[in-house]
Amino acid sequence: MWEIAEKIFNSRLILGTSRYRSPENLREAITRSGAEIVTVSLRRQAAGDGNKFWELLRELGVTFLPNTANCRSVQEAVTTAHMARDVFKTNWIKLETVGDEYTLQPDPFALLEAARVLIADGFEVFPYTTDDLVVGERLLAAGCKILMPWAAPIGSGQGVVNPQALKTLRARLPQATLIIDAGIGAPSHAAQVMEMGFDGVMLNTAVALADDAPKMAEAFAQAINAGRMAYEAGLMPTRSFAEPSTPLPGTPFWKTEKQA
């Protein structure tokens, strides 16, 4: 069980909903993954097969996490968040503010300012940020309870590019809910961050563009569960030297039939 923003879920996977081959492909991916929270963007899903898209998600009974994807300013992000609250009837918002066009790295100054405004307006803000500890601390001080740090630039599939930064973030912010968002390209990457003690993983591109999106979604779900179980069980410490798995002095205690 996972409690996030005063709601209880079974799955620690949050699934994005863009770039799938068809609404049916998306439906099967969500179903096979067991994801109970999905991100949605008003700005990206407004055109085309929009009505069918929204009907599909509502039929699945998932929890919506609207986002402010592609917003470049505080005002743009705040306005989009208010529109999303009206449409989806939720105070949850995944706050995104683009700062760099090449890496799509979040703008930490706009992110912090927009977070303060939205929290004052009654939103539960899920800020998409980098692995910078100071930015994370400032967002928490502003009233955020959840952070969504990246593992690598969005859509890159690189996995964890700075494991030490993520480990530091987890160690220094023990009470915060930390969900890895962006850069995860393989189930092994998801297992890795869950073994570090992160609370969940947000995915989109790695699933949506897979040859078999539903199968990949299920693979990620299993990896996330395995990583969480390993973290809770307690991983063995790494060593710079060998240690025998059977630490008995002398000869083995068993005998062959010939010796007997």
Structure description:
- This protein has 260 residues and is an alpha/beta fold.
- The protein contains 10 helices and 10 strands.
- Strands 5-4-3-10-9-8-7-6 form an 8-stranded parallel β-sheet. Strands 1-2 form a two-stranded antiparallel sheet.
- Helix 1 (23-33) packs parallel to helix 3, helix 1 (23-33) packs parallel to helix 10 and helix 8 (187-195) packs parallel to helix 10.
- It is globular.
- The protein starts with a strand and ends in a 27-residue tail after the last helix.
- The model has no long low-confidence stretch (mean pLDDT 91).
Give average pLDDT, whole number: 91
Question: Based on helices, strands and strand pairing, what is the structural class?
Answer: alpha/beta
Order of helices and strands: EEEHEHHEHEHEHEHEHEHH
- pLDDT < 50 stretches: none
First-last Cα distance: 54 Å
Task: Characterize the largest beta sheet: strand count, sense, and whether it forms a barrel.
Answer: 8 strands, parallel
How many helices? The count is: 10
Q: What's the gyration radius in Å?
A: 21 Å
Beta fraction: 15-25%
In what order do the strands lie side by side in the largest sheet?
Answer: 5-4-3-10-9-8-7-6
Shape: globular
Q: What is the number of strand segments?
A: 10
Percent helix: 40-55%
Key words describing this protein structure:
260 residues; alpha/beta; 8-stranded parallel beta sheet; two-stranded antiparallel ribbon; 10 helices; 10 strands; 17% strand; globular
